[in-house]
Q: What sequence folds into this?
């Protein structure tokens, strides 16, 4: 697959996105945002826009969430599904509106980051993650 020319990492409603031109730059930006996430606040939600798709994930906590919105981002999306069935809903702030994630949608941060890289490289959902679509169907 061709490498993207531009990958934008949105992390704040009132700040411009971090513009990346390679997967290495995306990794560096996400590493920096993860380190800088304020532990006194809720974890940070970021939106990575590439190839017309949007990859939403959380930083500053482990486990985290992962959501893939498929172009044109009008309702087709896939959520990562983890092993947790009990626990508290986790709120994330940052890109977009505050979002709340059920324990079943929390996965290890390392798995989420690997799935982000996989999507950017292959424009497909990672086969290493269990996914559910917008209707809660496995897929």
A:
């Amino acid at each position: 697959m061709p490498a993207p020319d531009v990958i934008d990492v949105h992390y704040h409603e009132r700040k411009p996105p971090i513009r990346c031109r390679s997967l290495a730059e995306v990794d560096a930006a996400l590493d920096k945002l993860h380190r800088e996430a304020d532990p006194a606040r809720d974890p940070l939600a970021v939106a990575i826009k590439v190839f017309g798709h949007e990859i939403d994930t959380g930083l500053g906590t482990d486990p985290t969430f992962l959501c893939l919105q498929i172009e044109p981002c009008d309702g087709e999306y896939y959520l990562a599904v983890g092993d947790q069935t009990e626990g508290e809903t986790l709120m994330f702030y940052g890109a977009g509106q505050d979002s709340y994630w059920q324990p079943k949608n929390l996965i290890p941060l390392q798995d989420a980051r690997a799935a982000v890289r996989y999507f950017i490289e292959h424009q497909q959902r990672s086969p290493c993650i269990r996914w559910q679509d917008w209707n809660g169907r496995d897929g």
About this structure: The beta strands are 7-10, 18-20, 44-50, 53-59, 66-69, 77-81, 90-94, 99-101, 130-133. The chain has a mean pLDDT of 92.
